[in-house]
Specification:
Distance between the termini: 52 Å
Order of helices and strands: HHEEEEEHEEHEHH
Largest sheet: 5 strands, mixed, barrel
Strand order of the largest sheet: 2-4-5-8-6
């Protein structure tokens, strides 16, 4: 009780409030890291469940499945590209070289639906030429790859694509594969996910194709959480000892300080001498 009263005394009140706020912040950051850990575990579980599934052939009843929630599932689809409605995904890099990814609607064989295919990377100079015909793939093709979820904005920073106005001409460059917006300018009904095409040993040259790099670990979130909780404990447990030491140092300095002329001790001594002389 005595320590508590001392902590909230006039001398230490502000420091105590700062220590409480600092400890609370550390606890909150630790809880945030635990939340991040749970999100990471949920993501890993979701992805692993799809990786364990056999490749899905996109035709018939498979087109009615919840493809959005099947991200990273391997898929196979047959169809024909419509290069007239092809777009470029901006600011993509291949071995530190700037360029774009070509996103092309594939009309699924025997169906009245299309799915967007990320066909891979081309250099920025080729993109700026606006002539991508050298990369066209005519006729029926078979595409192998993985399902990916569309994006409408960046996970950090808030970057988005401008909203497409009704009747606006084909916009050729996009920041994200935003299927909801792209469906307004593509003349086929689009499936709710797109395919990131896998590399093919028989395919050489551009566009360069790759698959997502997945790290299915729990990351450093648990260790970060323990660090923040440790900082909070050190603040709360160590603060009373700090106050006690500071108080002791203050008392020690006062006891060691010599009496100065005109101090209360000297005044009392002079008073006693004066009284003795009068008598």
């Amino acid at each position: 009780m005595k320590e508590l009263l001392r902590m909230f005394s006039r001398r230490w009140r502000l420091a105590t409030l700062l220590v409480i706020a600092g400890a609370g912040l550390c606890v909150r950051l630790g809880i945030w890291q635990l939340d991040r850990l749970e999100q990471r575990r949920a993501f890993n579980s979701r992805v692993q469940a799809q990786l364990d599934q056999p490749p899905l052939t996109l035709s018939g009843d498979a087109l009615q499945q919840d493809l959005y929630h099947m991200e990273y599932r391997q898929v196979v689809v047959r169809g024909k590209y419509d290069h007239s409605q092809e777009i470029a995904l901006s600011n993509q890099y291949w071995e530190n070289q700037w360029g774009v990814h070509l996103i092309t609607p594939l009309i699924i064989s025997g169906e009245q639906q299309a799915i967007l295919i990320d066909r891979g990377w081309i250099p920025g100079a080729e993109y700026q030429s606006q002539d991508w015909s050298k990369y066209h793939e005519p006729g029926e093709v078979i595409v192998h790859g993985v399902l990916r979820r569309p994006l409408s904005k960046a996970e950090m920073g808030g970057r988005t694509d401008p909203t497409l106005s009704p009747g606006e001409a084909l916009r050729k460059t996009w920041n994200f594969v935003n299927i909801e917006q792209l469906a307004r300018q593509i003349s086929y009904p689009l499936l709710p996910a797109y395919i990131q095409q896998a590399p093919d040993p028989a395919w050489s040259g551009l566009p360069y194709r790759s698959q997502p790099e997945l790290e299915l670990s729990e990351g450093p979130h648990m260790s970060y959480a323990l660090q923040w909780f440790t900082f909070a404990i050190l603040l709360v447990a160590g603060y009373p000892f700090f106050i006690r030491r500071q108080e002791r140092n203050t008392l020690s300095r006062r006891s060691e300080q010599p009496s100065l002329p005109g101090s209360s001790d000297e005044i009392q001594h002079r008073g006693r001498v004066h009284q003795g002389t009068t008598r």
